[in-house]
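Quick check before the chapter quiz. The format below is the same one you will see on the exam, so make sure you can read both the input and the output lines.
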Amino acid sequence: MNGYEDARLLLQRARKHEQELYSEMRKLWRVQRIARIGDQYRYRLTFHREGQPGLRPIAADIANNLRHSLDHLAAEAARQHLDMPDLDHQTRQKIKFPFPRWDDSLELSVAPLAPYVSKKICDQIEMVWRSPVTHPYYLHVVRVVSGAAKHWELRSIEPRILALQPVPSEGPPIAIPKGHFDQNNSFEWKGSPMQQLQTLERMQFGDVSHRPANIPMPPNPDTVFSTTSTYVQHMIEAFEAS
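Here is the expected output.
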């Protein structure tokens, strides 16, 4: 068995939950053709709001598995470095994979982990941390979502459909007024017959502390989870190569 297999299994689980999250979000929306007007039809997009809370535990599962995957990397690296298959409880409590500092700097320090793993592992962590795919703020969001789910609350997720594109169609997308579904459960429009409807969708967390100035909007789960998933994968590969 690969020493870092548990970390990989947790990453795979996180990615499976990502697919589940997008699948469940799409189930919240239903398009119907409700009337014919000459050579055109009237369509209705319905938002099934009652299913929205079901997204929250799935997002928590993703965040937990991503975070736990990194902690399993640190634990296995410590077992190898200390040559101790079983670590006592006090030592286990000290071995945690480094996340960004809980302040506006969002810097990372390997110092707390350094006494328990090799210098090469510390170097690998810093190398991946400096890579272009790393985004400290998204790692911070994952930690916030995971911690809140464990101790306090399931983080709210707001699903959005920003625009609709009938297929086939030579016209522009059908824009949905901003905030329309805040107060309404359906949106109607008139258009030509269509074979399918492509949607521009987005999910959004509520705001999270320590958001840098270069991120003007609250984070969306799509970007947070996909970016962090890539970071975790690169970190696993770096540990396996050490």
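If your answer matched, good. Strands lie at 29-37, 40-47, 157-167, 174-175, 186-191, 196-205.
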